[in-house]
Amino acid sequence: xxxxxxxxxxxxxxxxxxGDVRDLCLDGGKVVADVGPDARRIxxxxxxxxxxxxxxxxxxxxxxVNAARKLSPEAREPQDRTEILRAGSGGLVxxxxxxxxxxxxxxxxxxVEAAAPPLAARHVxxxxxxxxxxxxxxxxxxxxxQVLFELIREGRGLRDAIAWWLxxxxxxxxxxxxxxxxxxxxxxxxxxxxxxxxxxxxDVTPRQVIDAIGTAVDELGLPHPVHVHANNLGVPGNAxxxxxxxxxxxxxxxxxxxxxFHAYGGKPDGLPRSRAPELIDHLAAHPELTxxxxxxxxGPATTMTADAQxxxxxxxxxxxxxxxxxTEVETGxxxxxxxxxxxxxxxxxxxxxxxxxFLLGDPWQVMLSTxxxxxxxFLSYPKLIRLLMDRAFREDQLKRANQKAIRRTMLLDxxxxxxxxxxxxxxxxxxxxxxxxxxxKGHLAVGADADVTxxxxxxxxxxxxxxxxxxxxxxxxxVEEGQLRRAPPTRRLHxxxxxxxxxxxxxxxxxxxxxxxxxxxxxxxxxxxxxxxVGAA
Length: 537
Ligand SMILES: [Zn+2]
Prior knowledge:
This protein is 32% helix and 21% strand. By secondary structure, the chain is α/β, with parallel strands linked by helices. Zinc ion binds at residues 57, 59, 114-115, 257-258, 371, 374.
């Protein structure tokens, strides 16, 4: 059904529109120039109109998410079935239906599951199919894959193998997590101290893995560049590793995940301090690099990561329960429920570093995430947005945090920036959509997807962003004043790059020798939706 949204202030930074009051017309799932007189009218006078939210990095589906649900049954928060909604469970790690409902109620229309083992693609796709109201994509883990180690060492077939793996899994992009380091930890409880350390048994180094896979992804022309969770997450002094990783990828496009967790100074066994300003300076000089923040929010979280080693570190810090899992020859996985406390030096510093990254950075380059649910739930985005938009609120919150930590950031004296509505639209919509290579998302020009969120323009920005007045997904009105109205079908975004299948013989022999699944049984059925084009600028 055609819709005409009248009188709203449109914030569409990708097209240079900053609060202009004009009509917006939707038809056939797209933004159109005009609609007829029979179109449904939505009166948006006094309201703010933005493209639907795009989350570039969250954890919402697959075996690790499911394991986290099972690990904390006490936090389930059951949701009853209604006429429109399926039953589910909430909490920090909601069930599939509830995940889709809650993102939609926040005005989000596209979400990326940031780390799926290729071997688990079938499970990931099944859960994503079950997740309503949002378009979704997933990134496949490739930084500790033993076949790829061999191809990297031998210098052949890597690009074709990556292309095959994307096709075989229905994946959208390539993720590196602690490249080389997870394998090292699985073998010997070892830790990567430098990018030139050798991964025992494979004769490759993290630097070679980062360089080779970064190059291959660049050459394949995937819509999203290599997505990097760098080595040494959480370790004091790790900003040096992060900068080294950025330099290793020099000249190629790359996205750095949850940069806050990789922005620390200090000695590895001492207290961390902030090196956020240096990382922001490096990004400013390298427009080919982007990042999301991975903001920590005080309160409960659930850490879940392919970086199995960091889960062991968190366990040693006194976790009540944890889970660690080896995905045979591909990757690892650890889960630890965790609470960030405002009075704790390290937690307050992490919170402060996240805010520094936002307040020093360019929103086109430094995007919003909490690495849900690692730094906190996606449900905390409205509060995070208020921290960025409302300096008085931020200063009040700063007083409640560990003062020794806050004094070691730039937050008290020099950072009085307040984000504008259009800047919020950049870091929650326009920038992530552009970085994901989703040409029809994150903006509102004619031809864009009709994913639109309309907010009351409230002084309390947390309240404003927590309860949109309307959410429209693919041209269908799905949310009105905090109530879900309907759940139309959504898309699973994937790519299908072409490849030379000369390496399939090697791959087949390798599967015969080492894998628990035959090569012929490995590929999943493609998601059904048309693939997102590869090789576009
Ligand atoms: Zn993550």
